[in-house]
Specification:
Order of helices and strands: EHEEEEHEEH
Distance between the termini: 44 Å
Number of helices: 3
Shape: globular
Helix content: 10-25%
Strand order of the largest sheet: 1-5-2-6-7
Strand content: 25-35%
Length: about 150
């Protein structure tokens, strides 16, 4: 049932080689298939914030940079697990966006972003490609993260 599959664009910890990629590869989460790399057509601010060093795509289309990431095709079970990881709709929201593929085609994918955030996050370094680094290591305690953490941005 192809109609049950969704394309998802991941730009942070879900990418290959990043701390949460295992969510996309665990069979008990559902199925996912890597389709290739892509870049958002619209520019967005991508920042790393809170004491957990979480990558956030801020809902300010037209600001920031075109974001590099990966495109996956997922079934409904996996889409539900991604919603769980991103605490959708309480923490992250999601919307469909145009993504340019490596083959220079445009496809539409779901991506997760933050709509309600303090404006001070826009003053952070804006990235076009996220990678977990020793200088700003992603914390596996992210499950303790709450939307309020955005306000303090510790």
């Amino acid at each position: 049932m192809r109609s049950m599959l969704q394309r998802v664009f991941v730009y942070g910890t879900l990418k290959r080689g990043e701390p949460n990629h295992h969510w996309l590869t665990k069979k008990e989460n559902g199925s996912s298939r890597f389709l290739g790399k892509g870049t958002t057509v619209v520019r967005f601010p991508l920042v790393v914030g809170t004491r957990y060093n979480i990558p956030f795509l801020l809902a300010k289309p037209g600001q920031g940079k075109q974001i590099q990431g990966e495109i996956y095709e997922v079934d409904q079970a996996m889409f539900g697990k991604l919603d769980e990881l991103e605490d959708y709709p309480n923490y992250y929201d999601r919307e469909e966006q145009a993504i340019r593929t490596e083959q220079d085609e445009t496809v539409h994918c779901w991506l997760y972003l933050i709509r309600n955030f303090p404006e001070k996050l826009l003053a952070k370094e804006q990235l076009e490609c996220y990678h977990n680094t020793p200088e700003k290591p992603y914390s596996e305690n992210y499950l303790n993260s709450q939307p309020e953490d955005l306000k303090t941005d510790e």
